[in-house]
User: What shape does this take?
Amino acid sequence: MQTIPFDLSGLAGIYFRRIWALQRTFNWQLLMPDTINGLFGLLVSQYCEDVRFGDYSINSISSLRYGPKQRFYADLEEIKSVTLVFISPVDNSVLNYFYGWRELIIDKDGYYSAKNRYSKTIYIALYDRSGVESTQFVLRGCWPKTNPSLGLSYPSEDVLRLELEMSVDRISHKSLIGSILEGVTNFAKGSAKGVLGKIGF
Assistant: This one.
């Protein structure tokens, strides 16, 4: 919880304080449920340190003309980039997982597989301060566009990190709190409609 000051039209110079429940960027978890190359995705997921996604938009509005009227339809939605950053454990499980994933796309003879064989669904869960899941993002049709990118440097002596750019077909989300509010609202609307129906409206 965090307090944020705000002024109600400058009433006598008095400043009121309101309590806001705000999301924190560190209360999240990546979940890759698929097993690839003999490695459980849920175990590899725990090494994910950074997720960057978004920047997906409908680029333009196309038009169709029917006689005197003009109709519009939306262009295809484009998701420009989804990036995952992993820290690499000594057992190389993250490397083996994603290299195995690439082999699902292109086999050793250079042939491409059907997309339904190598595209996977990735989940990202956001939690509130009490540890309850508040929002879940679903990344559908994911697959690595590139092999893991390695940055090796003696001067830094840092933990080895693997950065991957992912292709994604669609991103959807659902909110636990929003679903509860929607359910309460629908229940209230249904009850009100039932009461009005009984009294003749």
